[in-house]
Amino acid sequence: MTNAVGQPWRTALRPEDGILAAWLAVGAPFATSVGGPEAGESAIAGLVIIGSDIAAIVCLGTRPPNQPRVGLGETSGPRWILAGPLVGALGW
Amino acid sequence: MSSIGVDHLGLAEDAILAGPMSLAAIAALVANPWLPVLDATLRRLLVLPFTLVAGSIFSGLAADLVDGLDPAAIAAGLSTSELTLVGFILMLVLGGLGAFYAMLVVAPRQLADPEDAGVRWLLRFVVFLVASLTGIGWLTLIG
């Protein structure tokens, strides 16, 4: 059985989708319920947030092996459009 | 998000990293062609924490938005003039989740590992939506 673009359905969801879904449905509410500044979790949360920002910046600074080296011209336009919200969120 | 991180650390000036983080991200984008090639799987791993953190923050915001809404009152509202307000709030949450998903999940993942996912993003969004609403329900119950 294939989807609209001819790929097997099993490839429709990547591991990230499952991890994100599990985190949002169970992990995040649980962390919110047990966490708190008094217990010291707040500083850990702060470090995790800043660490995730830095990891995203590292990703922005590299490129996958199958992506050709492009300059700042037209061919890199879509990348900048995709990166716009990300840059905004990093600075927020 | 850097401001939220600094705020959690208890520093007085929570915007201290906002500028440097944005500048570093722009510099990384500009210097991208000259920086190293990284395996796509590793790049996907690098953006995963960002999407998880962003998801947590957005779920918290959405939970605050719907906090105080009583499901029984919503059901009763279907036959009253409050229907418009209830519909508006639901649209805000769903629209917000959609915009969030496009900007802070789809975009980073497409940057990390460009793929021609097409209609598969719809299925992924449905999974995300169900999980988010479940989490928001938990957060609202917890208060």
Keywords, separated by commas or semicolons:
heterodimer, B: 143 residues, mainly alpha
Cα Rg of chain B: 19 Å
Q: What structural class results from the helix and strand content of chain B?
A: mainly alpha
SS elements, strand count of chain B? 0
User: Biggest interface and which pair forms it?
Assistant: A-B, 65 and 73 residues
Task: Count the E strands of chain A.
Answer: 0
Average pLDDT score of chain A: 75
Helix-and-strand structural type of chain A: mainly alpha
Mean pLDDT score of chain B, rounded? 81
Tally the helices of chain B: what do you get? 6
Q: Could you tell me the strand content of chain A as a percent range?
A: under 5%
SSE string of chain B: HHHHHH
Share in helix of chain A: 55-70%
Residue stretches of chain B low in confidence (pLDDT < 50, at least 5 long) are none
Oligomeric status: heterodimer
Distance between the termini of chain B: 23 Å
Explained architecture:
The complex is a heterodimer of chains A (92) and B (143). With 92 residues, chain A is mainly alpha-helical. Chain A has 3 helices and no strands. The radius of gyration of chain A is 18 Å and the shape is extended. The model of chain A has no long low-confidence stretch (mean pLDDT 75). In chain B, helix 5 (82-112) packs across helix 6 (120-142). At the A-B interface, helix 1, helix 2 and helix 3 of A face helix 1, helix 2, helix 3, helix 5 and helix 6 of B.
